[in-house]
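User: MCF2, Lepeophtheirus salmonis:
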Amino acid sequence: MKTRRENIISELLSTESRYVSDLESVLLNYRDKLVIANNKANIIFGNLDEIHDFHSNILYPDLERCGVNPAAIARTFSACCQDLKTLYCAYCQNMPSARQAVAELGGEATPSILYQCQTEAGHQLPLSSYLLKPMQRLTKYQLMLRDLVESSNVVCGKEDLDDALSSLLNVIKVVNDSLNEVNIKGLPKAVSPLGSLVAHDVFQVTSENKSQSQILFRNRSQRRHVFLYDNHILICKPVNEKTQNYQFKFSLGTSSLGMSSIVKGEDKKIELWVHGRGELYSLEAKN
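Assistant: Predicted structure for MCF2:
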């Protein structure tokens, strides 16, 4: 078990070093050249320089100082999770704009400026592959921490490793949730903060307006993607489900929301209403 732990830690350090080098190479061979040419560098790379600085100057040196001590590595990850969350949420929220900017520069095929940068850098992979590395790195941390948990016991810091893995999984969830926010167009600032994303799915949504027991009007059923956050329910129109793009339609604050999951004769339907208002919303699931 000791040898396995040491191998995992060795892999963690070697891949972290390579990750830092890859980010530096992208910044030097693409970002800096695009800055000189005044070609959308800030949009394409977002805060990648901040991510590089954090890993190069803080996380990687801290991990090196841990040696082969699993508990120290766990505490290092636990201490940096808030920084990871802030940096990677900002990076991922910029990804749709980055992809659009890459396309506007002619994509990555010859003879675009990005292809020229790739050729001069001697990279086998195009820029888009390198821009995915930050998200891939977060996933890699999760896998390696799981391996350390499985190969450790209480004496070797298993409790600290469990805590670090739990914190890192929360980081990944929050980062993924932030991607859903980006893909909702027209989202008003008034619904912030949304809180954590609890669940989301597609429903047939019908709205009614009631005055006491009398229905004043009823809208036809419409297909909507519903996002349940801690503080709000967002009702959105699917624009492109393949790319997970949505158009914001309206929101319901969870603090003043009523719900009934018992609708007579309808086992796939729930009803929502806002206390003090006459609107009633019926959500019918596919199954």
